[in-house]
Amino acid sequence: MASSQMRFDGRVVLITGAGGGLGRQYALAFAERGASVVVNDLGSSPDGSGHSLLAADKVVNEIQAKGGKAVADYHSVEEGEKLVQTAVNAFGRIDILVNNAGILRDRSFSRISKEDWDSIYRVHLHGSFLVTRAAWPYMKKQNYGRIIMTSSGAGLYGNFGQANYSAAKMGLLGLSNTLAIEGQKYNITSNTIAPLAGSRLTQNVMPPDLVESLKPEYVAPLVLYLCHESCTDTGGIFEVAAGWISKLRWERTAGAILKKRNKSMTIEDVRDNWEKICNFDESTHPDSLQDHISLMMDILQQTNCSDTSVVMKEAESSPQNGINVELAKSFSAQSSVLTYDHSHVILYALAVGISTKEPDHLKFLFEGNEDFCALPTFCIIPAQKAVFEVLGDSIPGLEVDLVKVLHGEQYMEIFQPIPTSGELTSVAKIADILDKGFGAAVLINVETFNKKKEKIAFNQFNILLMGSGNFGGLRSSPAEKPIIRIPNREPDMSIQQTTSVDQAAMYRLCGDYNPLHIDPNFAALGGHPKPILHGLCSLGFAVRHVMKNYADNDPTLVNSIKVRFSKPFSPGHTLKTEMWKGNEGIHFQCQVVETGKTCLSGGFVRLASSASPLRSSITKQATSKNLLSDQVFEQLARKLQGQLDVKQKINAVFLWNITQNGEQVSQWTLDLTPEGGGIYPGQPHVKPAQCILSMEDKDIIDLKTGKLNPEMAFISGQLKITGKSMNDNTASNSSSFSPFELSLFQMLFLFLFSLSSNNHKKISNNPKKKESREFLFKLR
Ligand code: NAI
């Protein structure tokens, strides 16, 4: 159909060695579809000797005779710039380059001369390099280019008598692979073909009927397709012949890890594992250097060795690569302060995929919600600010080239619920620098404190400085928070969630403004076809998935998190979190559904267990007596988390005696002082209670649901208040409280009013309670 015909009108194509064989077919096909063609050919014999204008002229005449546009160029590809100049002089630009020129100097390896080697290298590999290098600036400038390299089956698989040719042809694949990466930023693609066709190069090695049937016409459609503007595939290698086209890729066996902890590795280990090393049963298909590095990280983690035969001496005395571990560790960074309010906490929640679609998510999105709280992964926000400041600093003993920095792994531990507003101070320290060979892994520990200097969270960033390895440092460190391997079985559960195309654009507003996540040009510099999502954003999604499935969506149950960032993730793609229940928490890993690649690996969320004082004591008491008031105070405890303002306003300690039929059955402390421990069962831990409130268990529920007004409860005697006067330190009864103390109780009751969301409606209709509600909102 003419309407869907793929055209090249306005495009300028340079084809090297287009005077015959495959090149001629390409030239005719491009011209037929509207391209302006530069037909380059030196007019040499198959071994590269001689020179003639005829070859190129003949093809140009053929094209022009059919009404096409073409000019001849007679230079050798060894004069790359002159070929490109011909295109620019004739047509003003160059859009497509097909590196096709070729010769043969076949000799068995024992007979091959240096000249045989050099001449093949000069035409194939060096020639393709020179012409491409000349065309590159034009393509870059116009932000468009299509490049083809011509390899060969002899290069991919080897062929008797073609050592020189095979080496050059395989070199072209390496050249193309790297151009594909470097060209991404400029919309320049580079692909490689390994054709088979009847031509003068093959007529002496193939029977005549085969030469006849393997027509060059069968190769041209693939070359044209790869060079069309609609095709953005890059870095591919294709076999093409006889009307058949296929794509090739690398395949890697699962291999065998021979290095054992504290043991050296021997030649016999290799012999004994040879079958495993070569077994393709569980093979994978690596397609990038990042794949390779990520695997090496895994292996290093497993072989983590500390024996002196493998581990080299400390970097102290070997400051190569600008790294001196001890000096860097002694660096003390300025503390970093993050001041924020509820909007920052909500923005973070939205940025990691929280939505109002799910009703139990409102507590992360609405500052007026009674359970409003921050996600546990929010603790990364103050910590990353500190790390950016450290990396931006000049650290003695550590030279950081930000372009070569990769975020390798992350560990976070949460000690207290993250406040929903306020000021957090983070202190970053270089804990160690590990020598991973391909790079240096910088472990940066960050401790985050609230205003009272209580530790809220600990983060460990594992930052990879690519190319800074082999400095003579240790491979592992006791300071390193290790990856915990996922169980070797099918996941117990998985969740999928599609991210928004603007996910990274939103997440960056939380504080990571690296242009890699928003600017296509910057992303292309790093070899990414488009901006990638922050690894920490996908981590936020994954931890939410774990929390939702295994922790009742309760952030206070998340103790610590560890993960490795294995592969980039594109905004708009779907994240699949696979989860396994373990003894102490949940293992997880995440895949990109669209590509099947694992983007987060070795994930683990340690959940609060008996190790959590708040949680365990609540559970213990609630299960032992099964009191209604326990539920009320537990909910109140969660509500208080992060609400520093409330503590500052109330600034007093209350002890509640809970009774059943007049008999005391439990006690709860409400330590509402800024430095206090919050709400917990039992007697106060820090300061003595300033007043004691007694109430029947069943009445507390009425108080919570709004059935019972606290003032009425007090007047009717359902609520008893005794305590010490704060002024004279003497025992008082309820009738002798100072106005200040009475206002304190009022605040406490107002606070209690907000326990039930059902109350909001009722309160708004009652003028007195409306006032209370306004007061509460002021507190938030
Ligand atoms: P061909 O010999 O018909 O065409 C090659 C053209 O390159 C010739 O016209 C020659 O004059 C020109 N040339 C040689 N040296 C040059 C130089 N220094 N500068 C400019 N032009 C030069 O061969 P064929 O078969 O069309 O091969 C095209 C490409 O495909 C070659 O790179 C070849 O190695 C490759 N190839 C071909 C296969 C086949 O089955 N025909 C198999 C695998 C690869």
Automatic annotation (TrEMBL):
Keywords: Fatty acid metabolism, Isomerase, Lipid metabolism, Lyase, Oxidoreductase, Peroxisome
Any Gene Ontology biological process: fatty acid beta-oxidation
Basic and acidic residues biased stretches: 768-780
Entry's Gene Ontology molecular function annotations: 3-hydroxyacyl-CoA dehydratase activity; isomerase activity; oxidoreductase activity
InterPro entries listed in its UniProt record: HotDog_dom_sf, KR_dom, MaoC-like_dom, MFE-2_N, NAD(P)-bd_dom_sf, Peroxisomal_Beta-Oxidation, Sc_DH/Rdtase_CS, SCP2_sterol-bd_dom
Protein family per UniProt: Belongs to the short-chain dehydrogenases/reductases (SDR) family.
Name recorded for this polypeptide: Peroxisomal multifunctional enzyme type 2
Organism: Acanthosepion pharaonis (Pharaoh cuttlefish)
Lineage: Eukaryota, Metazoa, Spiralia, Lophotrochozoa, Mollusca
